[in-house]
């Protein structure tokens, strides 16, 4: 069974006065390890890697890996929380070099989208991913997100790439039910929902899990959703998802990760800072998110009182 199952959190990068806030980042890793997450994604699009220089990216990854291993020691769990690392770009040779730097690290794999902006042919995409997978010592998760890259991974392309022994999963953001179902039925790639509102659908179809930015908030409920559906408890899973849906919709009302950061800041976990060209959530949305944060605190207090 591939490790790419369950709920994975694509970690935000917290900032404080413009610098990476490594203390807050460590606290977030501990929080999600304790919530039962299957794994973490470092330097995915939610983590604003395009706004980090190379040294900052390396430092963020080092902090996440170190804290993931420390959380395992503190919980007497022999297995550190797996960490998947985003590798982005449209220059194949540079990406191969980056993968070479990552190979010695204790990571679960690399997450890679199609080359952005240049819109290569499907044959070019196959060659690109094949070259990168050949260079990787770790498993590869494809990231199909055409509204960011400008080109989608067609089904035939995904099926061709599935033959590579190190390409093991796909983060599915293409919005095509036909493609999602075909990949699940084919069975060679683990299919992870990449659009949070599609988590329920993907899991019910037989997908392996999700990489969900909204799982930064109420992580235990996202884990409970996965476990209910994996165990065949459809009614329970449906109730959990219906309760989470308004939160998911609110967290994507403006470009990610601004709403997620605003809500985490309202909960006192980070500062509400992003780097240009990203901007903070608008005033009206932040008011809605602050109300959500207060509701979360009230529900947490009620839960504690009932224990």
From TrEMBL:
Location relative to the cell: Cytoplasm
Keyword Cytoplasm: yes
Domain of life: Bacteria
Pathway of action: Amino-acid biosynthesis; L-lysine biosynthesis via DAP pathway; (S)-tetrahydrodipicolinate from L-aspartate: step 3/4
GO biological-process terms attached to the record: diaminopimelate biosynthetic process; lysine biosynthetic process via diaminopimelate
Classification via SMART domains: DHDPS (SM01130)
Chain residues that bind pyruvate: 46, 211
Pfam family, one: DHDPS
Record site feature (Part of a proton relay during catalysis), residues: 45, 117
Active-site annotation: 143 (proton donor/acceptor), 171 (schiff-base intermediate with substrate)
Enzyme Commission code(s) on record: 4.3.3.7
Coiled coil segments of this chain: none
Catalytic activity: L-aspartate 4-semialdehyde + pyruvate = (2S,4S)-4-hydroxy-2,3,4,5-tetrahydrodipicolinate + H2O + H(+)
UniProt keyword terms in alphabetical order: Amino-acid biosynthesis, Cytoplasm, Diaminopimelate biosynthesis, Lyase, Lysine biosynthesis, Schiff base
Gene Ontology MF: a single term: 4-hydroxy-tetrahydrodipicolinate synthase activity
An annotated GO cellular component: cytosol
Keyword Ribosomal protein among record annotations: no
Main subcellular location of this protein, as a coarse class: cytoplasm
Task performed by this protein: Catalyzes the condensation of (S)-aspartate-beta-semialdehyde [(S)-ASA] and pyruvate to 4-hydroxy-tetrahydrodipicolinate (HTPA).
Family: Belongs to the DapA family.
Oligomer status and interactors: Homotetramer; dimer of dimers.
Family matches, as PANTHER family: 4-HYDROXY-2-OXOGLUTARATE ALDOLASE, MITOCHONDRIAL, DIHYDRODIPICOLINATE SYNTHASE
UniProt-recorded name of the protein: 4-hydroxy-tetrahydrodipicolinate synthase
Source taxonomy: Bacteria, Pseudomonadati, Pseudomonadota, Betaproteobacteria, Burkholderiales
Gene for this chain: dapA
